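Work Package 4 report. The design task specified in the project plan requires that, given a folded chain encoded as structure tokens, an amino acid be chosen for each position. We show below one input record used in the internal validation round.
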């Protein structure tokens, strides 16, 4: 393991693309950090070295409560070639969304609003994440939400030479190797919201790649909208998720600012609806009836200051 000056490296806490992640303690402040480490054992590992170097280059520029910050990078070379690389990142003491799915709608909306705010800040800085998915979104105590893993991120308008992305969440333009922009992250987040709400994966373009390598975009399946799979989901939210996942980027919300406005409107609608339900429930109890409270779930995370 590459030594990182100023840090005591502890036990492994996770893995990434060709990497291992360790808990580390700053020897002076005693504060906890995460260290991502990649070792080059063959030419096949070059892309993992490149990804972790890219992650540092981009995330070191991003300072937002919902974006994991990378503090420093450390390399070990042999014969002028990088053999090991490690980056020191904020430690997130929580779970990814695929392991901590919200079971209450207001919690879901708060998380999505914080993710969209983080992505908006990233887009303002000139970058696309391009791999938003539930296990790249961490949820920790106090309502902390962190977007992680910037190894596939790129500048706005960048056209990648090869297909990169996670098949269940990848946008059509990523499969077509077209220029990527904020609407790419809108699709990735929309596909993530679809899974969180329905437990089903949206049928992305990657899932319809033909045996010869051609792409038959979304012709194999006509996905049901979230409210058709779960009738507790408000229709405005269901429509928004489906708009985020449209094949044509021009038909999606144009950026995270627009997406956030619509999520905020849905949140207000849901809160008013729940308030009416509670008032009806109180009246029902006074008449000897039973209250229908809707979804049973834990309280939403606290708001960040």
């Amino acid at each position: 393991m590459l030594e990182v000056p100023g840090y005591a490296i502890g036990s492994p806490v996770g893995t990434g693309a060709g990497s291992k992640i360790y808990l580390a303690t700053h020897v002076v402040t005693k504060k906890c950090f995460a260290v991502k480490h990649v070792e080059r054992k063959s030419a096949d590992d070059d892309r993992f070295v490149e990804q972790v170097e890219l992650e540092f280059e981009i995330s070191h520029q991003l300072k937002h409560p919902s974006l994991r910050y990378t503090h420093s990078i450390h390399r070990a070379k042999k014969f002028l070639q990088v053999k090991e690389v490690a980056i020191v990142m904020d430690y997130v003491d929580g779970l990814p969304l695929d392991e901590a799915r919200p079971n209450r709608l207001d919690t879901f909306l708060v998380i999505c609003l914080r993710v969209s705010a983080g992505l908006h800040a990233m887009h303002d800085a000139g970058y696309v994440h391009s791999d938003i998915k539930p296990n790249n979104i961490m949820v920790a105590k106090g309502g902390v939400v962190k977007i992680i893993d910037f190894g596939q991120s790129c500048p706005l308008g960048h056209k990648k030479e090869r297909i990169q992305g996670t098949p269940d969440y990848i946008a059509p333009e990523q499969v077509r190797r077209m220029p990527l922009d904020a609407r790419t992250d809108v699709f990735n987040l929309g596909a993530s919201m679809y899974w969180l709400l329905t437990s089903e994966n949206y049928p992305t373009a990657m899932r319809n790649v033909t045996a010869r390598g051609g792409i038959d975009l979304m012709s194999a399946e006509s996905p049901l909208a979230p409210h058709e799979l779960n009738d507790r989901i408000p229709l405005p939210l269901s429509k928004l998720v489906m708009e985020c996942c449209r094949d044509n980027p021009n038909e999606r919300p144009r950026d995270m600012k627009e997406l956030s406005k619509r999520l905020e409107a849905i949140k207000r609608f849901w809160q008013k609806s729940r308030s009416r339900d509670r008032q009806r429930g109180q009246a029902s109890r006074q008449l000897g009836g039973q209250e229908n409270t809707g979804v049973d779930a834990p309280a939403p995370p606290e708001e960040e200051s």
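The chain has two domains: 7-90, 95-264. Validation will be extended to a larger panel in the next phase.
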